[in-house]
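Much of the work behind modern protein science is quiet bookkeeping, done one molecule at a time. The protein below has been through that process, and both of its lines are reproduced in full.


***
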Amino acid sequence: MDGSVNTVKKNTETLVVASKKIGLEVNGDTTRYMVMSVDQNAGTSHNIKTDNSSFGRVEQLKYLGTTVTDQTSIQEEMKNRLKSGNICYHSVQNLLSSSLLSKNKNIKIYRAIILSVVLYGCETWSLTMMEECRLQLRIGC
């Protein structure tokens, strides 16, 4: 929106007023904001106060299954995705190691279940993250 705290506060107040007009209420206890800036000094914490609410600043948030941080690093998101994939793999490991299923069925299970967990929301990832994913998993993402 803008680098100035006053502009962010003004936009927040506008959001609260517009929400009230259509019958919605912004919950100050659960609503937070995040500063994303190349300026390292932009990280100073300010609580934004409106008439009845105060909105605190966060360093990271989870949005549509993806962790968004105020830094541009994707390393933490890659770790989280691979961790989720490992958890998923271990939950179906008995099924995959069963001699009752063919190799083709195992591959279909792997692609349908494990890759779906790891690649959830990949349409929104940056090209850098996609390349790291491909290298980590040795697949064509």
User: Anything to note?
Assistant: Residues 5-58 form one domain. The longest strand covers residues 54-57. Residues 5-21 form the longest helix (17 residues).
